Amino acid sequence: MSDHWSWSLNSTGDFLVSSVRNFIDDAFLPKLDAPTRWVKEIPIKINILDWKISLDRLPTRANLSARGLDIPSILCPSCNAVVESTSQIFFSCPLARQIMLKVCRWWELDNISFNSYAEWLKTKFVRIQAA
Q1: Three-class secondary structure assignment of 69-94
Q2: Where is the Reverse transcriptase zinc-binding domain (predicted)?
Q3: The model's pTM
């Protein structure tokens, strides 16, 4: 019997780039409970921002510090009271809340306060299901 190479990442034993990509994705990419959903009616930049917020992948001071960057302070530069995180920037910071209040007034919407992306997402899905 002659020797031969065998690839164990797929059932056929043949090397496929897609099997390597899937292996790497499964090993290193974060797992989400819900699949990524792109909303075609809004600009792609907003979809990407929403995706980065959901993964907590924005370059906030807390994330930069956690990645080993030496920064003078991890406190929010707007309020200087708490650590600058994704939830803090978009939901908890007093400046962010003031901006959201003005946007809601401008668009004639009810202002609903959220403290985190998860809380916003939960409310968003409740409203979608009710509609």
Answers
A1: CCCCCCECCCCCCCECCHHHHHHHCH
A2: 33-99
A3: 0.60
